[in-house]
Amino acid sequence: MRRDIFQAIADPTRRAIIALIATQAMTPNALAEHFHTSRQAVSKHIKILTECDLVKQEQQGREIYYSLDIQKMKEIDKWLDQFRKLWETQFNQLDEVLATLKKQKK
Which CATH code for domain 5-105? Predict the structure, then answer.
């Protein structure tokens, strides 16, 4: 089953998992230590992140390590960038309006 990436990252626990594995690969047990929940609950979150290709897994001995797929994060960033440019334009226009109003008060 393919999942929607934005639905996956809407959950605060999954965003926290992403933040934890952004710098180093971790096992489900290591991840579970950071949450007040069961390893099974963390595994469900990891499964959802894996299903939308945000997280990749690598077997090392008997352990499975999960890490962030940077390419997928770049896709999210690229999509958000169009809005970032729009917001920056609007903020710049607001700055100009505020500067004009400030000059008029003097």
Answer: 1.10.10.10
